[in-house]
From TrEMBL:
Organism: Micromonospora echinaurantiaca
Domain of life: Bacteria
Protein name: Lipoprotein
C-alpha cells in the first residue's frame, strides 16, 4: 500500500465533495425559481422616478441580457464562469488548495439544460501519491449515481451571485456619482441569509443587521459588481462577499461538449463526489 495514499485520497474525496457543494451552493443557492431573479427588476434600466434601491434592483440580470461572465468570492471560496440563459446553462470553476499537502484541486462544472459535466485537475502534486487518475476531458455525470444529487450545480436562474435577494434586503441605498451605489443590508431579512450563507450570518449576531455594501452599474444599465463588507465578530475575521458580472451579451454561448471532448464519468469520479 502506498504511504499515506488512503488518507490522502480520502482527503481529496472529501475536498472534492466539499468543493462540489461549494460550487452548487455558494453564490448559487437559487433563491428564486429557474429564470427569475428573486425579486430584482432585471430590466437593465429604471424609470425616471425610481428610488435608488429600485434602480439598483432593475440592474440585476434577468436573462434578457444574453450570456455573460461572472465571478465571486465569500469567506471560503472563489469561483468564476459563464451564465447562458438561452442554453439554461452555467459553466463554473473553483480551486481549493489542500492546507496539509499543498496541492490544488481545480474543479469545473458545465450544466446545459438537465445535463452536467465535470472536469478536475490537480496541480502542485510533485512527490505526492494516491491521487485519483482522471481524464482531461469533460466527464458527464449521472445524477442518479450521486449520494447527494443536490451537491452538484443545476441551472436555477441567471442571478447566480444572488445580488437580487441581497439588494432587496437593503435598509438604505444611496446613489453616488458614476452609477455607484452604497448602503446597508440586513442579512437576517428575507432571502439574504440564504444568499450569503445562513451559518455565516448567524455567526455575526446583531452585526448581521447592518452590513455595508457598495455596487456599481455599467453604462448599459446592467449590474457589474456588488460587494458586502462583512465585519469581524469575536474571533472571526472580517471578510468580503463579492459578485461581479461582465460581458453581457458577448460572453461565449454554452453547449453540450461533443466528440472527443467528453466521455461518461468513470467510477473514480463518483467516488470523489460521494466521499
Amino acid at each position: 500500500m502506498m504511504t499515506n495514499g488512503t488518507g490522502r485520497a480520502g482527503t481529496v474525496r472529501r475536498g472534492a465533495g466539499a468543493l462540489a457543494a461549494v460550487l452548487a451552493t455558494t453564490l448559487l443557492v437559487g433563491c428564486g425559481p429557474a429564470g427569475t431573479d428573486s425579486g430584482a427588476g432585471g430590466t437593465g434600466s429604471a424609470t425616471p422616478s425610481a428610488s435608488p434601491k429600485q434602480a439598483l434592483l432593475a440592474a440585476v440580470p434577468d436573462g434578457s441580457e444574453g450570456a455573460f461572465r461572472f465571478s465571486g468570492k465569500d469567506a471560503t471560496s472563489d469561483l468564476s464562469g459563464v451564465v447562458d440563459p438561452d442554453a439554461k446553462g452555467i459553466d463554473l470553476t473553483a480551486a481549493v488548495k489542500d492546507p496539509e499537502h499543498g496541492f490544488t484541486t481545480r474543479m469545473s462544472f458545465l450544466v446545459v439544460q438537465e445535463r452536467i459535466w465535470m472536469k478536475v485537475k490537480f496541480t502542485g502534486t510533485e512527490g505526492l501519491t494516491g491521487l485519483p487518475k482522471l481524464p482531461n476531458r469533460w466527464m458527464e455525470l449521472d445524477r442518479s449515481r450521486l449520494t447527494d444529487p443536490d451537491a452538484t450545480p443545476t441551472y436555477e436562474g441567471v442571478d447566480v451571485g444572488n445580488a437580487g435577494p441581497i439588494i432587496q434586503a437593503a435598509t438604505t441605498v444611496e446613489e453616488k456619482a458614476d452609477r455607484r451605489y452604497a448602503g446597508v443590508v440586513d442579512l437576517t431579512a428575507a432571502e439574504a441569509a440564504k444568499a450569503v450563507g445562513e451559518e455565516e450570518v448567524a455567526a455575526l449576531g446583531d452585526a448581521a443587521r447592518q452590513v455595508p455594501f457598495t455596487a456599481v452599474v455599467g453604462a448599459d444599465g446592467n449590474l457589474t459588481s456588488l460587494t458586502l463588507d462583512v465585519p469581524a465578530v469575536g474571533t472571526a475575521k472580517a471578510w468580503t462577499y463579492v459578485v461581479k458580472y461582465a460581458d453581457y451579451g458577448s460572453a461565449p454561448k454554452l453547449a453540450a461538449p461533443g466528440g472527443d471532448a467528453a466521455q461518461p464519468a468513470p467510477k473514480v469520479a463518483y467516488q470523489m463526489l460521494n466521499g
